[in-house]
Amino acid sequence: MMETVGRQSEREHCPDTVATGSPVSPNRTILEFAFLAFALAPLLHFGNRAFLGTFSTVFAAIVLEALPFMLIGSVVSGLLGEFASQARMFKVLSKGGAGAPFIAAALGLLFPVCECAIVPIARKLMQKGVPPAVALAFMLGGPIVNPIVFGSTTVAYALSWDFAFLRLVFGYLVAVFVSFVFALVFRKSQTLLLPPSPFPIYENGPQRRSGTFASYVGRTRSALVHGAQDFLDMFPFLVMGAFMAAMVQSTLDRSFFYSLAANPGVAIVLMMVLAVILSICSEADAFVAASFQVSLPLSAQMGFMVLGPMLDLKLIFMWLGFFKKRATLLVAGTTLVAVFGLMLLFDAYVRWVLS
Predict the structure, then answer these.
(1) Secondary structure element (H or E) that encloses residue 174, with its range
(2) What is the dihedral of CA 295, 297, 303, 305, to 10 degrees?
(3) What distance in Å separates the CA atoms of residue 346 and residue 176, rounded to the nearest whole number?
């Protein structure tokens, strides 16, 4: 069953995810203490009303606008994990033809799950025989090329559906490009994967096949429980991301951002680094990026939204749970180069249009 493996794999291989009843990860504990220390900084500006006004407005706006989409994404992810069968997906992707990566990168339109939930699904597909490059296209493209992310980006950018559509297109192009590079560099797929974990891969067991009303109620409850756990796991990253964005915009002088706007390459790199560090869920990161609309170029904002769901700190740890290190380095490096190059082209196009 997809849900059984997905949740167990996610709890085992993502150090930022804490399973119920399990010890807290040292990496997450360090991160929480660091954030707590950083969160005390606003107290230094306690008497500065302008600072507190800007900080509280930006922070509250990001969190409150993003919460509904995070909640919807978590519920959908839980329902898909419980009810959606991988049989059809496996049948389409297992052929490994030249067109498979193009299909895989767009499967998020049918399976809209976030980046943390999609990793164990892709891992299971690879274990069942789907070519790693094809599963990789699904893993990178799915968290961006999906209707929930399209909706959240549209709302974050004041119903600018064309900008949201561009985000999906850029995410799709990067996912397909990285997939083909991966396939060219690593032709022997079995040498890329770590040995399967000791826990089995379950399919729909007899206890799940019953068509009774009680069985559907039980499965729905299980889906909502896992969705709630996903929501609680990702909510701290939204808070930290909103806090960082609010602090930056409240403390740094506007002239600093204007200087970045004059140098788009630096602005793009800065936002890409921020995306990797903050590790915000793809359903919510558009609201953080949109808070920089008046200060950073569109290319930098787009770089933040395209790279974040594909590459961040929590995803790197998850990849290391089934990819060998050299495969992980190739995916990370190729993704960084592809996003940066594409954003430079996008910036040049925007400046050409506005000139």
Answers:
(1) helix 161-185
(2) 50
(3) 18
